[in-house]
Amino acid sequence: MIMIHEGRKAIDLSGTWKYRYETEKTGGNSAEDFYAGERHAEDGWKEIAVPNNWYLTEIGDYFGTIWFQCEFETPEYSKEEHVWLRFGAVDYTADVWLNDIYLGYHEGIFNPFEFDITDFLKKDGGNRLFVRDSAPRDETEYINSGLDKNTPLSEPYQRHQAKAITQVKGHMIDAMHRPGAMTSFRQDGNSAGIWDKAELIIRPEKFIEYCKISTRLVQKKDWLGDGQDKDTGSAMVSLDITLNNMTSATVTGSLRGDIIPDNFEGGVAARSSRNVVIPPGRSTVKMVITVEEAKLWWTWDHGYPHLYNLVLGWQEDTVKIRFGIKEIVQDDAGQWYLNNKRIFLRGMRYISSLWMSEAGEEMWKPDFEKMIRMNINSIRIGSHMEKDGLYSLCDELGLLMWQVFPLHYCVSDDDDMISRASDMIRDMGMMLTNHACMGMWSVYKEPEIYQLPDKPNNYFRLCHVLKETLKTVDPVRWVHLGDYREGVMNIMIGCCSDGDTDVDDLIIPPNIVEFGSQSIPCLETLRTFIPEDKLWPPHWDTWEYWGLFYSNTFEFAKVELGNSLEEFIENTQEYEAVSVKEQIEFLRMKKYDPVSSMYLYYWSDACPMIGSGLLDYYRRPYKVYDYMQKVYTPVLVCAQPCIHPYKLGREKIFHVGMSYTARVWAINDNYESISDVLLQWKVTDCETDEILCRNSFRLELLADSAEIPDHIVLPLGEELSGHRCRVDMKISSGNEVLSENDSYFRVEP
């Protein structure tokens, strides 16, 4: 059960703990059997910092079981209070003992869990806590897909596919950009450990355990006017409040709720109360509070992310929960509406780190500030979960969140897996649903992406049950079953699909939740994970392990190796930069026809490797970083060459005797029209610097629009044979440049 712990009296158990590897079993498989063998072992214990992922310590990339222990003093608490032991996150399963008493078991990588330890605390001495953390390799079989048979890769480093993973870890167990990514070593880089805080939480014996907040903007039919539904300016805040009465008697009293501005000025916005009768145990009651003249939560680019605090009081307990008032819905065409206004999502997929203990505001805040400067208004957390602080920061900054449950690629579809995953997705919903930034959910990253003939039936078995379970927590927001269904697709031109794809032949859905490519990071970063003797000529097994993906690089992207390591790096970075830029232009030219959202594959690499981020693990930029900044602006001007086949990331070839023709697009994602803007373009011969043609004119950029206000038509004479030409474009308003862009083409005989 997820419980409110914020704001309560707490004792942080972070610090230096002791650890040791589990010794060989001496018989039995129960928790008590394991404990009997480890409890009295005094030798072999070493010190370790907690919280931590053990990969980041001297333990390294170990798969198995580690025992942890610490001692703490009994905190001060009254006879009307209870003490709870709370773990923020333990990867992957945990058995817990306190003072030789077995408290219980937990499975899951991200979800917190608690034990009431009041009756087990020592009144006059130290308490001894043991945690048995098990994070073995999943026992799934890995099968060679056969896709890398014609490469220089040895068999273990060829592309392998898990048959049926049974652990719910998503990206942290199986994904493209992690150590051993597509090889037989896919699970390397273990994310195990007590990676979030352990703490003691003190609550009264009659307390507010949990509250689910739903908000709805109120409309009313204008019967005496035009008969249309009209916004009233008010909002309903609907609360499902779980109260826990740990006494043996029924209690009667008032449940009180105040709604108070958090990040803007104002007095109490709304107040309500009701009398409740609560028997021993848990009870859930409903309370509805209407906020007149509600201040709404908006993404940063369309308004202000107003936040409120809900202050709940019952008996002697008081809790405070921050939330925002908004509605985010999807229409039948797959378009998104925030607070009844259509919104185009310029998105980014994000993962802080493969080892979450090292993530925090000092990492997130610079990342998100750069994202906002790059005009990103939405984030997709794909197949993992971040610490709660990340979502709180998105609440404040006005970044809309698309959260994916931690399942990725090929997992088991048996009944036990479905049951266990359903418990965890319920926790995910309860943990995140009150965050103002939460926009939409996916229950699975890619449930049908396999390269094996015998596939688990995850989409029709696991995904539907997960959706049903999540809907019990959040019946309001859109819940997506999995990529490549329900108007959602990934394109990844030149990375996961052929770089020679004619995109005019693609059926593009409304929501592109992954686009992008990949490249090799700078030499300084490359040397942090590839040994010097493996760098050049490339030792292909080593490079594949660290994310090169030989087939993708040379068969899809068709990047040239070049004559040196530096040249190879430059070739990959240049291809990624141009490919991503043109993918963005292509998708934005399809704004609302039908594209409504687009998410670059990654902001930064989750670990030191060859990745698909704008930044590498050390936050050093790839070349694509500057290219993307140019075309992720709210106002965009770009040229669409009239060429067939239309290949993104490839040089655009026209021939002598033809005309270079292109549509000039002007795209405005702002909610306001911009009048009297100046659009200019010119075509220049790069060999001679001669301007071949040009045009400039004034126009009004309509609000939230994508239009073709002009065409370029340039006859190509013999004098241009073999020349490269550049198209320069600009949209400006007064002295302000709203968009500046360019593209290239080559003239051949």
TrEMBL record:
Q: Where is the Glycoside hydrolase family 2 catalytic domain?
A: 334-484
Q: Which InterPro entries match?
A: Beta-gal/glucu_dom_sf (IPR036156), Galactose-bd-like_sf (IPR008979), GH (IPR017853), GH2_Domain-Containing (IPR051913), Glyco_hydro_2_cat (IPR006103), Glyco_hydro_2_N (IPR006104), Ig-like_fold (IPR013783), Ig-like_GH2 (IPR006102)
One GO-annotated biological process of the protein? carbohydrate metabolic process
Q: Which residues form the Glycoside hydrolase family 2 immunoglobulin-like beta-sandwich domain?
A: 230-325
Q: Keywords on this record?
A: Glycosidase, Hydrolase
Give a Pfam family name.
Glyco_hydro_2
Q: Where is the Glycosyl hydrolases family 2 sugar binding domain?
A: 57-131
Record keyword DNA-binding present:
no
| Entry keyword annotation includes Hydrolase | yes
GO MF term set: hydrolase activity, hydrolyzing O-glycosyl compounds
Q: Where are the transmembrane segments?
A: none
Into which family does the record put it? Belongs to the glycosyl hydrolase 2 family.
- The protein in question is named Beta-galactosidase
Give the species: Eisenbergiella tayi
